[in-house]
Amino acid sequence: MPRSRLLLAAVVSLAVVAACRTVQATGPSIFDEVVEGIRELDGGLVDIVLPDGGSETFPASDYEPPFCDARLNPTIPFPPELKDAGVYGEVQVKCIVQVNGFQRECKLLQGVGAMDQPVMATVKMWRCKPAVLHGVPVASQHVTFVSFKPKEPPPPPAPTLAPAAPIPALPAGLPEVKAPQDNPLSPEKVELGFQLFFDKRLSKDGSMSCESCHHLANGWTSAQALDAKVGGGMNTRNAPSMLNLGTHPFFYWDGRMPTLEAVSAAAWKGQLGADPAENAKALNAQPTTKALFDRAFGTTTGATAENVPMALASFFRALGNGNSPWDRFTAGDKTAMSKEAQAGWTLFQKAGCVTCHLPPLFTDLDFHALGVNDDAGRKNATKLDADQGKFKTPSLRNVALTGPYLHDGSAKTLPDAVAFMAKGGNVKPGSDPKLKPVKLSKKDAANLEAFLNALTGESNFTAAPAQP
């Protein structure tokens, strides 16, 4: 076959292949395919692949590539719906390929998809000056028709989630935790709640998470006397530890919330300033987060105002701290506590501290008035005069890490707290009669502090989780 016929057959064949392009194509013009069979060789030669699988070589000086520019084709009507990349719909782009005087209609694009930037460039299509072989125009093309019909995009595929890790066992020395029937524990809910605890998307402005006031390194407290809320307003009470809450019957210093779900919802709206419905939408905008909620709760609606507190509550029930030197000592390891700590433990019991700080949680989960300040405390929740100034007994587990102390953070250090309690608090009308002054020597105080340090245990959640 003569050279000109071979070249013509090759280019026509390649042009026909180009007509099969779909929306997923990313090349800027049909010449991507028209010249696909032409490649440069060493020595200033160009090789063209022929339809029968053979090839023919000729000098590179005989070949001039096409030149494409949108300005050469300014008159094609352009659908206004295609003004922005990212729109989704059905697109069709028709064109004309001319090869050595022969003309063939082609479809440059046809299909349904998202109009990304490369596709948009193709839709806006260029008119191309012809490619030239041996001084003869070989092929040219230009767009003749563009249409676009917007469509609703399909939902994205569900993310692939790694299996949830098993719920970490509670450390030794802690009582069993039972979840309510309407929010049973599961690895999926605990894992989700753990992630949410560190997620600033829970807050109104994205500035704060639960962890912002409950740091792992500080026994899940803030190490501040008082903390600011989202928006700048200050709390009037100290951030308590989040450890070992699973068996508590009341929450907050005044006990106004009866469940972990209720206190989680209240803190979400109060401390973090959230609009639960709107913040749930923000969580669902991230596909992995939505998938985690759907898996945890067996739904298809993702995060809601109701299940965010349920996930947090599940994490709190699983969060524990135990296996302290005191736990090991009382389990039979007489070397687990120093002699000073052992003497402090004996004094702790003899002085009556154990009356309100009852093992194993080292709290009686009751409310007592210490005369700290004029805060009405429990009375705000119950409206009973008898509860004036009463506050929930805090656990002493990890107490060496959780200062400042008392409900207003007024005891800055552990020695300050020991001294305040040893003097019987601030005696006022209504002060708890169980709290009696105890005279402590310097050695007694040091031994008590050694014992309190021996209550520093091991947590079953030890590092912040990865965020989706």
Number of helices: 13
- How much helical structure, as a percent, in the residues? 25-40%
- Termini separation: 63 Å
Overall 3D form? elongated
Helix and strand succession? HHEEEEEEEHEEHHHHHEHHEHEHHE
Give the rounded overall mean pLDDT: 85
Biggest sheet architecture: 6 strands, antiparallel
User: What radius of gyration results from the CA coordinates?
Assistant: 37 Å
DSSP summary, beta strand count: 13
Strand content: 15-25%
Low-confidence stretches: 1-36
Q: Which class of secondary structure composition applies to the elements?
A: alpha+beta
List keywords for this structure.
single chain; 468 residues; alpha+beta; 3-stranded antiparallel beta sheet; disordered N terminus
What does this structure look like?
The protein is an alpha+beta fold and 468 residues long. It is 26% helix and 16% strand. It has helices spanning 3-18, 31-34, 117-123, 187-197, 260-270, 276-284, 287-297, 307-318, 325-330, 339-350, 379-382, 414-422, 442-453; strands at residues 38-41, 45-49, 55-59, 63-64, 67-69, 88-99, 102-114, 127-133, 136-150, 321-322, 367-369, 390-392, 458-459. Strands 4, 5, 6, 7, 8 and 9 form a 6-stranded antiparallel beta sheet that branches. The protein is elongated. The model is unreliable at 1-36 (pLDDT under 50).
